[in-house]
Design goal:
- By secondary structure, the protein is α/β, with parallel strands linked by helices.
- It has three domains: 2-128, Rossmann fold (3-Layer(aba) Sandwich), CATH 3.40.50.620; 130-166 and 202-267, Serine Threonine Protein Phosphatase 5, Tetratricopeptide repeat (Alpha Horseshoe); 272-429, DNA Cyclobutane Dipyrimidine Photolyase, subunit A, domain 3 (Orthogonal Bundle).
- 49% of the residues lie in helices and 7% in strands.
- A five-stranded parallel sheet has the order 3-2-1-4-5, with helices on both faces.
- Helix 5 links the parallel strand 4 (92-98) and strand 5 (122-126).
- Helix 11 packs across helix 16 (354-365).
- The longest helix is centred in the N-terminal third of the chain and has 19 residues, at 49-67.
- It is globular and about 70 Å long.
- Flavin-adenine dinucleotide binds at residues 215, 223-227, 230, 254-255, 257-258, 261, 320, 323-324, 327, 345, 349, 351-353, 356-357, 360-361, 364.
Length: 430
């Protein structure tokens, strides 16, 4: 008899809640990872750095497990089709995993749980990717918070009370003893290496200590670049939150934003394709394809916008300050639907996270959770003046700035600002 531990977005051996409890409570624990073709089939680009990253991490974990006398079962396909076969092949008694709050994942887990129950196999899912999951931080009336600040206060109080600690060493002797199991290559799944570098998995204490002073300047190495590691669980949120709590409140606050948006998505799955504030679904987006293309390619003639888009296209990363600027520019200056921008980021960002990406875009478009947002139209010039005064970031990505090769502004700022305000007002007054 076997217990399966199913890895998903928790790709690490240390402080992995579901894995820890599987090894504590069961014998013959066989770790499993499924390259889910329901998800992978949606990716048009076959040189996807995120798939490459997951694959690399899975092979590392497999090698680590093999040093301990176990292995890792790698599968490629649809979980709902693979599980019935796995149950028979391994005489599975129970399945352990960590919870995931995205709509697709919740739906998938419901299906799998049903399928397992029908065969009398137990299913245990644990909280792992967050300090507090949707439902744990509620207001005085027991409802979810619609704005960030009170959410963050309650979050912080509860964090201080609960003294979150990483878990200790798992009971490795309960791993299922096996010869190394078969590998699946990237190529087997139709993917290739991307050539894009993944930021290291290091919570740099010095950087985090100064984060509040450096975080807004895209030319500085002033943010942690841990987004992809948080996305796939290659670092533990408990460890990182503990570090942040001891070193820098502003950094901890960003980790709270991450959980705020996960909570918003958890309670409001409709935000995936609708404005959080329903009235904002009325905005008549211009959706000009050529302008969208110019934005994607970093050819709008607004240097800070173009720098950001080129950074994204080349590295899979964009600084948060610049994400806000380019998103505001697309939705307000060009009046292009935030969902277009969101989808483009989803394709390109190494740290793409459905909840934060949707939250970030809705924030920029003014359709999301803040109080009075639509008047906020970022002025690219004054943002540059504040955050990239000596043009260091811009010149890195837009070396032809100031030459005849650089495009003229795609739209006049003053005109575009007024057009956005008028369009929003008209749509919301209806
Ligand atoms: P740091 O500044 O070092 O912050 C540490 C961690 O805190 C981040 O890795 C992230 O997990 C979390 N965090 C920081 N800021 C935010 C925030 N505003 N909202 C939620 N979590 C935050 N973040 C994503 O993780 N995935 C996305 O797909 C994503 N899309 C975005 C789209 C737009 C339009 C905007 C404005 C923001 C988006 N963000 C997204 C939030 C933020 O820009 C990134 O988390 C951050 O830039 C990642 O870089 P870092 O790892 O160096 O972050």
């Amino acid at each position: 008899k076997t217990t399966l531990f199913w890895f998903r977005r928790d790709l690490r051996l240390e402080d992995n809640t579901g894995l820890y409890y599987a090894l504590q409570q069961e014998h013959n624990v066989l770790p499993l990872f499924i390259f889910d073709s329901n998800i992978l089939d949606l990716l048009e680009e076959k040189k996807d750095a995120r798939v490459e990253f997951i694959h690399r991490e899975i092979l590392n974990i497999k090698a680590e497990l093999e040093k301990k006398g176990g292995s890792l079962l790698m599968k490629y396909g649809k979980p709902e089709e693979l599980f019935p076969k796995l149950l028979e092949e391994f005489e599975v008694e129970s399945v352990y995993t960590n919870r995931d709050y995205e709509p697709y994942a919740k739906d998938r887990d419901k299906k799998i749980e049903k399928l397992l129950k029908a065969k009398s196999v137990s299913f245990f899912a644990f909280k792992d990717q967050v300090i507090f999951e949707p439902g744990e931080i509620l207001n005085g009336s027991g409802e979810f918070y619609k704005v960030f600040t009170p959410f963050s206060k309650t979050w912080l109080d509860k964090f201080k009370e609960s003294q979150v600690e990483p878990l200790g060493e798992p009971t490795w002797k309960n791993l299922k003893k096996t010869d190394p199991l078969q590998e699946i290559s990237l190529r087997d799944m139709g993917f290739e290496k991307s050539g894009i570098e993944i930021p290291p998995r290091v919570a740099d204490k010095d950087l985090i200590s100064h984060y509040d002073q450096t975080r807004n300047f895209p030319a500085k190495n002033g943010t942690s670049r841990l987004g992809i590691h948080l996305r796939f669980g290659t670092i533990s949120i408990r460890k990182l939150a503990k570090t942040a709590y001891s070193l820098n409140d502003t950094y901890l606050n960003e980790l709270i934003w991450r959980e705020f948006y996960m909570m918003i998505l958890g309670y409001n799955p409709q935000v995936v394709d609708h404005a959080f504030k329903p009235a904002y679904d009325q905005i008549p987006w211009r959706n000009n394809e050529e302008e969208f293309q110019a934005w994607c390619e970093g050819k709008t003639g607004y240097p800070i916008v173009d720098a950001g888009m080129r950074e994204l296209n080349t590295t899979g990363y964009m600084h948060n300050r610049v994400r806000m600027i380019v998103a505001s520019f697309l939705t307000k200056h060009l009046l292009i639907d935030w969902r277009w921008g969101e989808a483009y980021f989803a394709k390109k960002l190494l740290d793409f996270e459905l909840a934060s990406n949707n939250g970030g875009w809705q924030w920029a478009a003014g359709t999301g959770t803040d109080a009075q947002p639509y008047f906020r139209v970022f002025n690219p010039e004054s943002q540059t003046e504040k955050f990239d005064k000596d043009l260091k970031y811009i010149k890195k990505w837009v070396p032809e700035l100031g030459t005849s090769k650089y495009p003229k502004p795609i739209v006049d700022h003053k005109f575009a600002r007024q057009r956005a305000l008028d369009t929003y007002k008209k749509a919301l007054d209806q």
